[in-house]
């Protein structure tokens, strides 16, 4: 039975209108406690909610907010994969997904309110948007909303995010355990999440009783693109003179940075690049630009 037939059947059995049943199952606040009880009891008795995790609401439309680059695999593979995973998960539940691009900071609040106030927006997912004003608006609207990989200081909304500091710690520790003592960290620190990643890397150095020298062990870029990473690594390697140690591994902040770093190492030649870790360092960081 598809979503529309389920709603029609619940409406028939409870004597409530289809719109009321839809609002209850969408988790909207403008429904009475009695209506919610009738709808959920009927749905449970008819097995409609079986196999669905506790508390899951039936939704027909979800709006996804993310930085504009997240909708193009060429500009942000990490968020692109996240969004594709969400779309695949919602497809089997017959949920329509719509998208809206916002800036990470200083977002367009009017555009956000316009999209959230649309009757078709029954719930929202906010990906990689750190603007506190957007978080406040989302919480005040009282529609189901989850933050994904956002810096959330208010804690008014459900939120999920990787443990970026632990990822950095694990990645560097893994390379140390493989025998690498001079790791070159190729990172973009544009977002707070990547600063946490770097904090974890520094933590691993300290635990292994190794000094972390920004000049020797860190290259930062303004973005996550491969071309910039390639140029940055080429410049770094060309600046190494005499008997200064060469890096034996590159720990990159994303897939495209890893590819660009590898190309930069190849262009510098084996005598400048030392031993380069290719596929290994790409596996250490989640693909893309968190």
TrEMBL record:
Residues 272-283 have a biased composition (Basic and acidic residues). Residues 5-47 form the HTH lacI-type domain. Gene3D superfamilies: 3.40.50.2300, lambda repressor-like DNA-binding domains. The keyword Transcription regulation applies. It comes from Serratia marcescens. The gene is ccpA_2. SMART domains: HTH_LACI (SM00354). The keyword Repressor applies. GO terms for molecular function: DNA-binding transcription factor activity; transcription cis-regulatory region binding. Keywords: DNA-binding, Repressor, Transcription, Transcription regulation. PROSITE patterns: HTH_LACI_2. Residues 261-290 are annotated as: Disordered. It comes from the Bacteria. This is Glucose-resistance amylase regulator.
């Amino acid at each position: 039975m598809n979503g529309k037939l389920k709603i029609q059947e619940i409406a028939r059995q409870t004597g409530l209108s289809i719109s009321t049943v839809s609002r209850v199952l969408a988790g909207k606040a403008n429904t009475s406690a009695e209506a919610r009880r009738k709808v959920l009891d009927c749905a449970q008795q008819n097995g409609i909610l079986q196999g669905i995790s506790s508390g899951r609401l039936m939704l027909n439309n979800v709006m996804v907010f993310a930085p504009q680059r997240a909708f193009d695999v060429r500009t942000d593979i990490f968020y692109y994969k996240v969004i594709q995973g969400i779309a695949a998960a919602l497809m089997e539940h017959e949920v329509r997904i719509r998208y809206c691009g916002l800036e990470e900071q200083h977002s367009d609040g009017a555009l956000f309110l316009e999209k959230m106030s649309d009757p078709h927006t029954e719930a929202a997912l906010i990906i990689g948007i750190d603007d506190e004003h957007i978080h406040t608006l989302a919480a005040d609207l009282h529609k189901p909303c989850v933050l994904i990989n956002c810096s959330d200081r208010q804690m008014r909304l459900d939120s999920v995010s990787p443990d970026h500091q632990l990822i950095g710690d694990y990645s560097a520790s893994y390379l140390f355990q493989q025998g690498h003592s001079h790791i070159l960290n190729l990172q973009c620190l544009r977002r707070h999440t990547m600063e946490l990643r770097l904090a974890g890397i520094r933590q691993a150095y300290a635990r292994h009783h190794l000094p972390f020298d920004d000049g020797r062990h860190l290259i930062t870029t303004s973005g996550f693109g491969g071309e910039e990473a390639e140029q940055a690594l080429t410049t770094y390697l060309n600046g190494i003179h005499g008997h200064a140690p060469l890096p034996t591994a590159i720990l990159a902040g994303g897939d495209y940075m890893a590819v660009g770093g590898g190309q930069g190492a190849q262009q510098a030649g084996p005598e400048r690049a030392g031993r380069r870790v290719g596929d290994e360092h790409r596996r250490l960081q989640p693909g893309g630009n968190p």
